[in-house]
Design goal:
The chain is α+β, with helices and mostly antiparallel strands. It has 6 helices and 8 strands; from the N terminus they run αβββαββββαααβα.
Length: 229
């Protein structure tokens, strides 16, 4: 996995976390109200009273909190301080989310570009017999087939597109829609369903046949990867 892709996943995870935090802040603000209020004291008939004050539709509104006593408006004061704190945190999270979304869009552009330009190769084996050598170019995939037997070969053509290759690799992976897909990806150290990355981890091994995939630099034989004799 490239540094750009790793950074993309890290920022995406951070964006998800900040979004959850914002949702939690928004929920609490909805519960206590968003009006910025203050506590004022009014003297009526020589008696002092606490009032909660706020502006609504351009007019000042008041709510009596009772006579002034030590701590008599404490709960309201705590609520006002909490509201100010939440509003500041909400603004901060919104700024961070916007920033992260901008950076993710930039990284996605480079990640997609990197994916398109990435060239690689691999070999396909049936047991220890070479079945095909695959060279993936920028737009075309070239397949050298050494076995034409339909059970021992996963390619039917010698030139295919990258999208067609992706569909072939999907057949060597577990299904994307299965209930435990996320758990299986996590076990492989992956955060999204990518057939190539999955096959790099599993070598495309299946219980149904003896086909497996070897990437350059891997010193492997059939007995190292196959799940049945």
């Amino acid at each position: 996995m490239s540094e750009i892709t790793s950074l993309y996943y890290a920022l995406r995870a951070e964006l998800e976390q900040k979004t959850k935090e914002l949702d939690k802040i928004t929920k609490e603000l909805d519960e206590i109200g968003r009006e910025q209020k203050s506590i004022v004291v009014k003297t009526i008939n020589d008696n002092q009273y606490y009032y909660e004050q706020w502006r609504e539709n351009g007019k000042l509104r008041y709510k009596s909190l009772g006579k002034v006593t030590p701590g008599g408006a404490c709960d309201n004061e705590i609520r006002i301080m909490r509201r100010k704190e939440l509003l500041a945190r909400e603004e901060e999270r919104q700024f961070l989310i916007t920033h992260l979304q901008t950076e993710l869009n930039k990284l996605k552009h480079w990640r997609d570009k990197e994916s398109i330009l990435f060239e690689y190769s691999f070999e396909v084996f049936w047991k220890d017999q070479l079945s095909a050598r695959v060279s993936v170019g920028k737009s075309r995939v070239h397949v050298s087939r050494y076995i034409k037997h339909p059970i021992r070969q996963i390619f039917s053509d010698e030139v295919i597109t990258r999208n067609q290759l992706n569909e072939v690799l999907k057949l060597r992976c577990f299904e994307e829609g299965r209930a435990d897909c996320v758990a299986k990806l996590k076990a492989l150290g992956l955060s999204e369903y990518n057939p190539l990355e999955i096959v790099k981890k599993t070598h495309g091994v299946s219980f149904n046949d003896y086909i497996w995939i070897r990437f350059p630099g891997e010193r492997l034989t059939a007995k190292d990867v196959l799940v049945r004799d």
